[in-house]
Amino acid sequence: MRPEQFLDFIVPLAQGGPGAVRVQTLADSGDTQHPFGIAVTRGGGEERWQVIGQLAPGEKHDTPTAAVTADPATGPLPAADAPSEEWLAGIILAAASPEISAVTRWSTREDARPGHIGLTVDYHNGARTFIRAL
Fold it and tell me: What is the DSSP string of the chain?
C-alpha cells in the first residue's frame, strides 16, 4: 500500500477511533513539509504522524501496486486514552486488513531507541509503511 493509499485507509479508521476528536491529513492541516501523514486530535492534544512507503521487492514506482491478501494481523481496539503509538497500532490492527501481515511498534522492539515513536506496517506483498511521530 503506497502512502496515498494508506492515507485513504487510515484517515477513516482514525476518525472512528476511540477518543478521536479531529483527524485530517497533514496537507489539510497546513503542513507543507511532509507530503504524507495525518494529524489526530484526541484528549491529550494533537498528534502528528508522517507516512513513508517502501515498495515491495521488484516493484517500480511507475506501476500499480499489486495487493496481496492473506490472514490479517489483528488486535483489539485500543482504549481512548492509550498512548499515541499504541492507539495508532490498535486501530490499524482492529481493522483486520487482509493486506497487512504485521504491525510493529518501534518503542516495544527489542532494539528500541528512547523517544523513537512510530510503527512499521508490513504487507503480504513485501511492501512496508513507516509511520513516525513528528
Answer: --HHHHHHHHHHHHHTSTT--EEEETTTTT--S-SSEEEEEETTEEEEEEEEEEPPTT--TTSPPPP---SPP--PPPPTTS-HHHHHHHHHHHTT-TTEEEEEEGGGSTTPPTT--EEEEEETTS-EEEEEE-
C-alpha cell at 119: 510503527
How many C-beta atoms lie closer than 10 Å to residue 103's C-beta? 20
Ramachandran area for residue 96 (φ above 0: left; ψ -120 to 50: alpha; else beta) = left
Mean pLDDT of 78-85: 95
Q: What is the pTM of this model?
A: 0.94
For the chain, state the CA radius of gyration.
14
Q: What's the rounded Cα separation, in Å, for the pair 12 and 46?
A: 17
pLDDT tens, residue by residue, 96-107: 999 999 999 999
Using pLDDT thresholds of 50, 70 and 90, give the confidence band for residue 19: very high
